[in-house]
Amino acid sequence: MESAAMLSLLLAFMCSGIHTVLTAQTKEGMLWCVCEHAHTCDGPGFCTGDICFFTMVHEQVTRGCFMTEHREQCLVSSIPGVYVHCCYTNYCNGNTTVPTKVEPRKTDIGIVPVVVPLLVVLLVFIALLGLVLWRRSRRQHQHLQELDPSLLKVPCGGDPTYGDIFDEFCTSGSGTGLPYLVQRTMARQISLVECVGKGRYGEVWRGTWMGESVAVKIFSSRDEQSWFRETEIYNTVQLRHENILGFIASDMTSKNSSTQLWLVTHFHELGSLYDFLQYSTLDPEGCLRMCLSVASGLVHLHTEIFGTQGKPAIAHRDLKSRNILVKRNGQCCIADLGLAVIHSVPSDYLDVGNNPRVGTKRYMAPEVLDESIRVDIFESYKQTDIWALSLVLWEITRRTTVNGITEEYRLPFFDVVPSDPSFEEMKKVVCVDQYRPCLHNRLHSHPILSTIAKIMKECWFQSPSARLTALRVRKTLAKLDQDQDGSTDKLKVDV
C-alpha cells in the first residue's frame, strides 16, 4: 500500500511538471473543447475550460472540459475497459482515438530533457518522504490499536463485488468512489430497471451496470443540497466499511429536459431496516448481530482515524430505520449522509454543511427539540446520534421473538404521537413529559435482550452527556457476542 501511495505521488509530480510546461506554450485564456454527454457543455457540442478531456468506459465516450484545480483526474491508470486522455489545445479532444492497448502517455520530445532530471531528484526525495510518512503512519496505527483494534479495519468493498474497476480504485485517491470523470461516464451506462422506494428526497431505483445490480438514488430538485453533501463527503472521505453503504458514483444528468441528481451505491435487495422489520422477525442472536452492525457503522462514522486510510469524525444527524439497509448476511449498513457534520480534531474545524433540511422529528433528541443543543460543539451532534440509535435498537427488539412472543412492528412513540408528528407534539412528549418507548417484559427474560434494553435506557437519557458513546455501545455488544459464541462452543464440547 505504501509503494502504491509513493507511485501516486510520483505520478502527481510528473503530471504537474508536464502541465506547467504545456500551459506555458498555450495562449492565455480558456480553451475551446468538444463537448458531448457532459453537463459542462456551454452549448451544442462545445464548452470552455482550462483542460479538455476524453474518456471511454466500456465503449461509452464522454468529451468535455474542466478547470486546472481538478487536473488530478488525468491520472487514471490503465485498467481494462477504461481510457482517460487530457489535452491542452483548442478542440484537441475532438479527434482522440483509443489505442488498442493503453500505454503510458507520451510527452513532447522537448519536455523530456526538462522532466527526466527533475524526476531523478524527486525520486530520491519521495523515497525519503515515503519512509517518514510510513513510519509516522505506523506509530499512529499502533496507538489506535491500543485504544481499539477494530478501528483499523477498513474493508475494501464487501458485498456485492462490482468488478475489477472498483477494486482498482477502492483504496486510491482521497475519497471512496471512482475518479470523478469515470463516475460520470459510468453513470450514463446504467439502465434503470424498477423503482424500489420513494420519499421526500426523491426516488430509489434498482439499476444494472455490466450485469451487476446497483442502487440509484435520484434526488428531487428541492433536495439538491443533500445530493451535493453526500457527493462531497463520499468523494473526499475514505468511508469504506462493511457497515456503511458502499458508494460507487455520483452524477448530474439531463433527462427529458430536466436535471436529475444521481447517487449510485451498492444495491441491497432486502431494502431498508424499516421495510425489513415490517415482514421479518428475528431470533435473539440475529437481533444482536443486527444491533452490533449498526453500532459498528456509527463508531466508524464518529471516529477520526489518522494515516493513509484515515478519515475525519462524522456525525450522521438523521439516523433512523429508513436510513439503514439490511444486507444478506443479516448485518446492516448506514446510508444517507445528506445532513452529516464533519469534524477534524487537529484543526478543530467543524463543517456543518449548507443544507436547510432538518432531521426526522420522530427521532430528534430532547436538546434538538427544545433548541438547547450547542451547535458549535461536535460532541453535541454525536450525542443526538446516540439518542436516535437507542430508538433504532428499540425497533429491532420489538421484532425479536422471545418465549414465542413477538410484537408488531411500530415506529418509536407510535402510541403518543400521530403518524406525521409536528415539532411541538414531539417536544411535549420527549421534553415536557419525558416519555420513553415501552419495553416489553419478555426482554428481561433473555440475556441478550436484557443487555440491549439496558443499553437503550443508557442511550436515551435526557441529559446528552449522560448517554453512552457509540464505542461503548459497540464494545458492550461485541463482548456479549463473544460470550454467546463461547457458550455455544462450550455446549458443543459438553455434548
TrEMBL record:
EC top class, in one word?
A: transferase
Kindly indicate whether the keyword Transmembrane belongs to this entry: yes
Pfam families named in the record:
PK_Tyr_Ser-Thr, TGF_beta_GS
Provide the species name: Pygocentrus nattereri (Red-bellied piranha)
In its keyword annotation, does this UniProt entry include Glycoprotein?
yes
The Enzyme Commission number assigned here is 2.7.11.30
Q: Which SMART domains match?
A: GS, S_TKc
Positions of transmembrane segments: 111-134
List the protein's name.
receptor protein serine/threonine kinase
Q: Which reaction is this enzyme known to catalyze?
A: L-threonyl-[receptor-protein] + ATP = O-phospho-L-threonyl-[receptor-protein] + ADP + H(+); L-seryl-[receptor-protein] + ATP = O-phospho-L-seryl-[receptor-protein] + ADP + H(+)
